[in-house]
Automatic annotation (TrEMBL):
Name of protein: HTH araC/xylS-type domain-containing protein
Keywords: DNA-binding, Membrane, Transcription, Transcription regulation, Transmembrane, Transmembrane helix
KW Transcription (keyword) present: yes
Record-linked Gene3D superfamilies: Homeodomain-like
PANTHER family: ARAC-FAMILY TRANSCRIPTIONAL REGULATOR, HTH-TYPE TRANSCRIPTIONAL ACTIVATOR RHAS
TM stretches of this protein: 12-36, 310-332
Ranges where the record places region Disordered: 747-766
Domain HTH araC/xylS-type: 650-749
Entry annotated with the keyword Ribosomal protein: no
Length: 766
């Protein structure tokens, strides 16, 4: 039955009237809200953007402090440099060797300005700097008198904390135009010593290293970013005010200092200009990061946008009324079509809830949101997360293997879809097993799963291992991807999620040991952290000796043993060993290049001194890459030997190896036997082996002595004679200088270490 036309018009009129009123009220209310809140929105957006930049700056400052502290500790533990700290009287040769070692440290990093080593007993400074100044200064003559005064009251300064200051260099040679430098000084001294004066290692970091990450603006940029300490003193330069200027007493600075230790923003007059002042909470150094943005920069478009909003709102209103008049009959008659569209909108809303759920889980894992059980329960119910905040929880971290290949093979959209597939597989497997679980994409081709298993800890651990294997198998079968799964320990409730996630992340670093497609348990990693790693310095020294002698096969073997040994410890131990080996190899190659003739071109691809965590290279792949580098070096050395076509050094070595026990063995004796001049033999031997004949004799004899000490019970004097040392006092002095310990200590320490675990003595890596 068809509805009368008049009745249809009446219903249509009501429907149209409701639409008109709704459109009018909606546009009017939205326009008023936008008109009134443009400024608030602009300020909030500016604050969010600024806090993101300041958070990155905080990380840069932390990296600077950690790096400087690491260098200071390495310098302090370096045996060569320890002579400068501990002995008041050193030979010029020892000082020169130690200064060169200091220079190696300084040149390792481009942002180190200078390094001082202060001997309190002799009141002497040993320095390395890019300025044309001497390397040794007495305390009275040292150009950095401010630092000298600081060391007289060194207990007033915290060790390894940055001290902002201006380094006075006016009038020094080579620094005519530069009068002072802005630096951060890090002091390392013995905090347990009661002496009024203490030995110290001082590392000066260039202020420009931090400044370029804070404010790279030109002076005509209206914004200004800088750092202050708890007293309101500038600890960086800004383009308006120099470093170490005390801003306390400035209204907006006083307001920040008086306020709570939270980040925030407010509007204030800065240099007679209304500005938005954004500030962060103090970091662990006690520094605040402040950014000043003139109000005109933020609000320059607000006024025009307000007018445009009113104009556009009016135009939309009239256009909407006109269009509504023309299309309302179709809209009225096509209500079923609108209901269908409403269903689509509901689907989109569900997807939005899913996105909000993932975002909340990411915040929970990263510790960005509240973690109390009551707050979490409300969020879990809102987003449909099937977890109980009060029950024990575990975290599984799923990482896509061969990260670089994955990124290069797939576009960003495809990678996101594949990771979404990994999440679905994990959730479906746990749902089928009846285990409450929630998964989220945490970025960088990684996913995390929160799950709750009821049962005893060991049983849950075994089941967790099985589920990880199921996930890996399903992902490989359906998505053709290889993944590594890292599982945390079990935590008491939702409050422990962030710590458990950090456990899983830290455990994932040991991917370098286990390789692709592995399952890593945080419990094993935590157990390895309790073991003390001893870096084999003696084995490193032996490796460098073999390198200097051109025995690359032995170098490969020793390098492999040192690296592989770290697999029983932590990823930090692995990085520690790689850093030490890299530094030692670079030093040795530098010496080889220095002693090579100028027409020889020695090249060796440098290893990275600090290796960041990467899913692109396992320990085995790293060793393989290093072996190829050693192959290149061996080829260069072989070509170098062939080009000379001279077997004289080999003949000399053979004679010395056979007759080292002869106490009368000397360069003149060797020259008489070979019928050549001693000068010529010494020059050729050093050119080919990079060491003197006497040095080689000493090395062969010392090697024989060490062997006899460890493997025989013969008296030390008898061993010295059997090795060719006829002068006992000279032997004892030479042995201690060469090996760092007396013969008796070497025999005792070597045998004790062999009895315990067969590992040579070394230094500890925490």
């Amino acid at each position: 039955m068809k509805m009368p036309h008049r009745k249809v018009d009446r219903y249509f009129g009501k429907f149209f009237s409701v639409m008109v009123v709704t459109i009018f009220l909606t546009i009017s209310i939205l326009s008023i809200i936008l008109y009134m809140n443009f400024e608030k929105i602009a300020l909030s957006q500016s604050y969010d953007q600024t806090m993101d930049n300041l958070a990155q700056t905080t990380q840069e400052a932390s990296v600077m402090a950690v790096t400087a502290a690491t260098f200071a500790k390495q310098i302090h533990s370096d045996q060569n440099i320890a002579n400068l700290l501990n002995f008041p009287d050193l030979s010029a040769q020892d000082i020169d060797s130690s200064i060169r070692q200091l220079t190696n440290y300084r040149e390792t990093s481009p942002f180190i300005d200078s390094i001082y080593v202060y001997n309190a007993e002799s009141r002497t400074f040993y320095i390395t700097s890019d300025m044309s100044v001497p390397s040794v200064f007495s305390e009275a003559e040292f150009y950095d008198q401010e630092l000298s005064a600081m060391l007289q009251h060194v207990n007033d300064y915290k060790t390894l904390m940055p001290i902002p200051r201006k380094l006075k260099i006016d009038g020094l040679v080579g620094n005519i135009a530069e009068r002072e430098r802005d630096t951060y000084t890090f002091l390392l001294y013995d905090t347990l010593s009661k002496k009024p004066r203490k030995n110290a290692v001082v590392v000066n970091i260039k202020e420009t290293q931090l400044q370029k990450h804070i404010d790279g603006s030109l002076t005509n940029d209206p914004t200004n970013t800088f750092l202050i300490d708890e007293n309101g003193t500038l600890v960086t330069n800004s383009w308006k005010t120099p470093m170490l200027t005390n801003l306390k007493g400035t209204p907006y600075i006083d307001r920040i200092l008086r306020g709570p230790d939270d980040s925030g923003y407010f509007a204030a007059e800065v240099d007679h200009v209304k500005s938005l002042v954004t500030y962060s909470s103090p970091d662990y150094l006690g520094w605040r990061y402040i950014r000043i943005v003139p109000y005109s920069v933020i609000s320059r478009n607000i006024d025009s946008m307000r007018i445009k909003t009113l104009i556009v709102a009016g135009a939309i209103l009239f256009a909407g009324l006109a269009i509504s008049s023309l299309l309302s009959r179709r809209i009225f008659s096509g209500l079923n079509h609108k209901l269908s569209r409403l269903g689509k909108l509901e689907t989109e809303q569900r997807e939005s809830v899913q996105a909000m759920r993932s975002e909340y889980l990411r915040s929970l894992l990263n510790g960005y949101t509240q973690m109390n059980a009551g707050h979490a329960a409300a969020r879990f119910e809102r987003y449909g997360i099937p977890l109980d905040p009060a029950q024990p929880v575990r975290v599984l971290l799923i990482l896509v293997d061969d990260h670089l290949l994955f990124v290069n093979r797939y576009k960003a959209e495809d990678r996101k879809l594949l990771l979404y597939g990994v999440l679905n597989i994990a959730q479906e497997l746990f749902a089928a097993a009846g285990i409450p679980a929630a998964a989220a994409d945490i970025g960088d081709e990684q996913a995390a799963v929160l799950l709750q298993m009821s049962g005893e800890a060991e049983g849950d651990r075994e089941r967790c291992r099985d589920y990880a294997a199921w996930i890996q198998t399903a992902v490989s079968e359906y998505l053709k991807l290889s993944v590594t799964v890292s599982s945390s320990l079990s935590g008491p409730g939702i409050e422990a999620v962030h710590a458990l996630y950090q456990q899983a992340v830290e455990a994932s670093y040991t991917w370098v040991f286990s390789g692709a497609g592995s399952h890593i348990e945080a419990e094993e990693v935590e157990q390895n952290k309790t073991k003390r790693y001893e870096y084999p310095l003696q084995k490193e020294k032996q490796m460098i000796d073999e390198l200097m002698l051109g025995r690359i096969a032995d170098v490969r073997q020793l390098f492999r043993e040192i690296i592989i040994d770290t697999a029983d410890y932590t990823y930090i131990s692995y990085q520690f060993a790689v850093s030490h080996l890299t530094f030692a190899l670079q030093n040795a190659l530098r010496i080889i290049r220095q002693h090579s003739p100028s027409n020889e071109d020695w090249e060796f691809i440098n290893l990275h001194l600090y290796m960041p965590h990467s899913r692109a290279e396992t320990m085995g792949q790293f060793i393989e890459r290093c072996m190829s580098l050693f192959d290149q070096l061996e080829n260069q050395m072989n070509e170098r030997k062939k080009s000379r076509q001279d077997e004289l050094p080999c003949r000399i070595k053979k004679i010395l190896d056979e007759r080292y026990a002869d106490p009368n063995l000397s360069l003149d004796m060797l020259a008489d036997e070979l019928g050549m001049s001693a000068t010529y033999l010494g020059r050729v031997f050093k050119q080919h082996t990079l060491q003197t004949i006497l040095g080689y004799i000493q090395e062969v004899r010392m090697s024989r002595v060490r062997e006899l000490l460890l493997h025989t019970d013969a008296p030390v004097g008898e061993i010295a004679e059997r090795a060719g040392f006829s002068n006992s006092p000279y032997f004892f002095k030479a042995f201690k200088k060469y090996n760092g310990v007396t013969p008796a200590e070497y025999r005792r320490t070597g045998r004790d270490r062999t009895d315990e675990d067969g590992v040579e003595s070394g230094i500890a890596a925490e």
